[in-house]
Amino acid sequence: MTMSRCVIVGGGPAAASAAGALRAAGFDGSVTIVSAEDVPPYERPPLSKDFLTGATGAGELQLHPRDWYTDLGVDLRLGTRVAAVDTAAHALVLTGGERIGYDSALIATGGTARRLPGVDHDRVRYLRDLADAGALAKRLATGEPVIVLGGGFIGCEVAASARKLGVDVTMLEMADHPLQRVVGDEVGRIVAGIHRDHGVKLRMGETVQSVHAGDDGVLVTTDRGRLEGATLVVAIGLVPSTGLVARGEVALDDVNGGIVVDGYCRTSAPEVYAAGDVASHEHPRYGRRIRVEHHDNAIRQAAVAARNMLGAQELYEDPHWFWSDQYEHSLQAIGRGDDCDRTVVRGSPADRRFSVFSLSGGRVRGVFALDRGADILAGKRLIRSAALVTPEQLADESVNLKRLAVDRSHR
């Protein structure tokens, strides 16, 4: 089929990446980005960090200036909502009834913040987009006490940003430690210590029973008592935005959430692809389906999807990298630490400067690092090379990990 029309649904980094990749691959047909947001695609990671503290302004978040889209001949349709993807007719159906035809389409709609049912008040805030961040920044600027519900990355980053502003912060989390589901007990305990050292009051292992918000503040009742604050920040996860595709026409993942795609980012519908937070991807490196909610993944996966829209047969097998800045610390991870049979620590957990390598069958599958970015770079090489290594080599800081990946990759 001759390709002359590519459409991209979504206004995040995946959309911008895909548009750039289409042009870089030599595609000279029409490229249209349809985004519900009123601003061009922008960086989302700073929303919970520098943007909240005022160190970064909204204009600095843009991935590209508007002229970039014009120069590439990309039709940027902002403030425009897609009601449905008509896979049979190869067309997007907009909420006003307009239809945009396509030869190939990429769904990069991301997700929305998971919300508390029955609670709708200005003092209860979420953080997903620029509008959310702007509203939350205004609440933090009052200096009044904040309750953060959720000890994942967004919750931890918001807590750190609020403390930088001198705001009193209490974090509520069902798990025993912040980030426990991602980094495990030991590292979660260290992350908890970092937040306590910066003045965050941690209430771990508590289950919220009710939330009442009014003009005077917020009252949260848990299984262990009550807590009052001026603002409640809800950071309890993301819901993939799959509503514009019909179940049955496009396969959805009932376990991980999101739209099912294969190793080439193809959905079950002809000429429809998906990438980023919304895509549940059959990952060739891990042999199972994975949905990843990280900035770097959105950019890389969308670029691969775009090239495949033009007829390439490129597997997306990136090991996934993400980072989180909290106070003076940088937390990074690459690959996957689950389904592994051994972990090895390199560095000093007591000094809060260490890495944890996850191995399966003597090969590195994932690395978590606290203030050791070089270990992440070396870990990426080890993962890609599938080099056989020993726990002793990984723990020995005199061993050059990058050279280890090269020297042992073919043994």
Describe the 3D structure.
The chain is an alpha/beta fold and 411 residues long. The protein has ten helices and 26 strands. The strands form seven sheets. The chain has a five-stranded parallel β-sheet with strand order 3-2-1-7-19. Strand 22 and strand 23 form a beta hairpin. The protein starts with a strand and ends with a helix. The model has no long low-confidence stretch (mean pLDDT 95).
List the helices and strands and how they pair.
Elements lengths: L4 E5 L3 H12 L5 E5 L15 H4 L12 H6 L2 E4 L4 E5 L4 E4 L4 E3 L2 E4 L3 E3 L10 E2 L4 H12 L4 E4 L3 H12 L4 E5 L6 H18 L3 E4 L3 E7 L2 E6 L2 E5 L1 E4 L3 E3 L18 E3 L10 E3 L4 E5 L4 E3 L4 H15 L11 E6 L2 E7 L6 E7 L4 E8 L2 E8 L2 H13 L5 H5 L5 H8 L3
Parallel strand pairs: 1-2, 1-7, 2-3, 7-19, 9-16, 10-11, 10-16, 11-12, 18-20
Antiparallel strand pairs: 4-5, 5-6, 8-17, 13-14, 14-15, 20-21, 22-23, 23-26, 24-25, 25-26
Helix pairs in contact: 1-7, 8-10
